[in-house]
Design a protein that fits this description.
Blueprint lengths: L15 E4 L10 E5 L10 H10 L9 H8 L4 E4 L9 H5 L8 H27 L4 H26 L15 H18 L16 H15 L2 H13 L23 E5 L13 H5 L12 E4 L1 H9 L3 H7 E3 L17 E3 L17 E5 H14 L3 H14 L10 H15 L6 H7 L3 H7 L15 H6 L10
Antiparallel strand pairs: 1-2, 3-5, 4-8, 6-7
Helix pairs in contact: 1-4, 1-5, 2-4, 4-5, 5-6, 5-7, 6-7, 7-8, 7-12, 8-12, 12-13, 12-14, 13-14
Length: 474
């Protein structure tokens, strides 16, 4: 077979960067760019699916991703020096961006390129001739999980989008995209092993629980409460995961791939390795005694106030590095340029290097409990909702919620999601999903308009494919 072109307009010139395979999953050397039409003689299903995981280490996750998930929201500010725009991070922060903002183009391209790589992996594996049917289906299921994740990021940001495998230009309704995502995840659930069944060398691969957890989140974002509840409960009752008793440990080296981890991007944290390019560096404290970063994506005073109003010192101090703080590892931060920095991006060993050893915790059990709580509440089971909510609160030594009645419990769960998941790249999408965005952004002094509920299709894409319809207002 031959590799299929990924010819979304922005990707026409892009090749497929494939990583080779060795004894440890993702601990692999770079391989040459494989252009469409090249022979697959030297490749295997494992190499192809590893290449999909490898996309997570791209620079776009170290910078553009910060802009369109957190800086754009009330959780964080641009940070860095006032004169350093970060390309477009200033206009993302102020909600004054247009369709030419580079971060949108970068992630639009990144996610479609990842989808194309996943689809090629699926097609290659289907035709490769593996005699072990379970292994064949596992490789396909991994690729389908990863494809679903990339489509999920796209549909949350842009709404109606092309399904690349069907049409490269026509935008289909978001509901159809979600159906496509769900089909991939259901296949993944049926064909992926549990976390405990993987060998140590395969640490970090997608698991059955990863697919169930992501499907719970997919249903949550559609308001499909019973399905969200069922999937969340399946993860919780599987026995594969447990809440980490010490919240702050989750983001430290000792917490990587821990009991709470459902899916995280691997960076081989035991030593400096090629994790997400510059993820820790772009967000590290700027200036001062530490001087280990560029200082972007700084927690906002709005977020600090939210922690303090709840007397939530544990999660506050695990999320925010303060000026002149001495870190848990003894590093003195000093008199930095900004008052606060993102501690969830901090690496004790990194010291400001471009390559980072920081695993990105994307999906964990704490969020699944909150998905269960929200779904249970919307289904009218307020008692079960409070039980799940309070499991998260008691972990950080907060009293049980005093909320009573569906509406009040809903607000309590939304507040808890913000504090529990702060700086974990979901805040903007939660605000949009729950229709809190306008009020929250205006409270943060940002000029939110109705058009902001969807991102603009990147201008270069519209220029190159003029038949593709732009989102309203852009």
């Amino acid at each position: 077979m031959k590799f299929k072109n990924i010819n979304i307009a922005l990707l026409m010139a892009a090749g497929f960067m494939i990583t080779g395979c060795s004894k440890d999953f993702l601990d692999v050397p770079s391989r040459e760019i494989i252009e469409a039409g090249d022979s697959e003689e030297n490749f295997s299903p494992e190499v192809l699916v590893n290449g999909v995981y490898g996309m997570f280490t791209d620079w776009n996750y170290g910078f553009s991703f910060l802009g369109i998930t957190e800086i754009i929201s009330d959780n964080s500010d641009k940070g860095s020096s006032p004169t350093d725009t970060g390309g477009d991070k200033d206009i993302l922060d102020n909600l004054t961006f247009t369709s030419t903002a580079g971060s949108f183009a970068a992630l639009w391209e990144q996610w479609y390129k990842s989808i194309g790589r996943a689809t090629n992996s699926i097609q290659f594996t289907e035709e490769y001739g593996l005699t072990d049917e379970n292994l064949k289906n596992r490789y396909i299921a991994e690729a389908r999980f990863l494809r679903a994740l990339n489509y999920f990021w796209l549909v949350r940001g842009w709404g109606d989008i092309p399904i690349q495998e069907q049409d490269l230009i026509k935008r289909v309704p978001a509901s159809e995209v979600y159906d496509y995502i769900e089909a991939d995840l259901k296949f993944a659930i049926d064909n992926l092993p549990e976390k405990s069944k993987y060998a140590a060398k395969d640490l970090g691969r997608a698991t059955k629980g990863s697919a169930q957890g992501l499907l719970a989140k997919v249903h949550l974002y559609q308001g499909e409460w019973q399905q969200a509840y069922d999937m969340a409960q399946a993860v919780i009752s599987s026995g594969e995961y447990a809440l980490e008793p010490n919240y702050e440990k989750i983001w430290r080296l000792a917490g990587e791939n821990g009991s709470e981890s459902i899916f995280e991007v691997q960076a081989r944290g035991s030593s400096i390795a090629h994790g997400i390019q510059q993820y820790s560096q772009t967000q590290g404290p700027r200036g001062g005694a530490a001087g280990i970063g560029w200082g972007f994506n700084t927690p906002s005073k709005n977020l600090l106030d939210a922690f303090n109003s709840e007397n939530d010192a544990i999660r506050r101090d695990a999320t925010i590095i303060f000026r002149n703080e001495t870190m848990y590892d003894g590093r003195e931060i000093g008199n930095t340029e900004n008052e606060m920095y993102n501690e969830k991006a901090y690496s004790s060993a990194n010291g400001g290097a471009g390559d980072t050893d920081k695993n990105l915790r994307y999906l964990r059990l704490g969020e699944v409990y909150l998905i269960k709580a929200e779904a249970a509440n919307e289904l009218g089971n307020t008692a079960e909702a409070l039980t799940a909510l309070n499991a998260i609160r008691s972990r950080v030594k907060l009293p049980n919620s005093t909320a009573s009645g569906q509406a009040a419990i809903r607000q309590a769960i939304w507040k808890e999601r913000r504090l529990e998941l702060a700086m974990e790249h979901d805040r903007w999408f939660d605000l949009v999903r729950t229709k809190q965005a306008e009020a929250a952004m205006k409270a943060a002094g940002k000029p939110f308009q109705a058009k902001h509920y969807l991102f603009p299709i990147p201008d270069n894409q519209i220029i190159q494919t003029p038949d593709m319809i732009q989102n309203t207002g852009w």
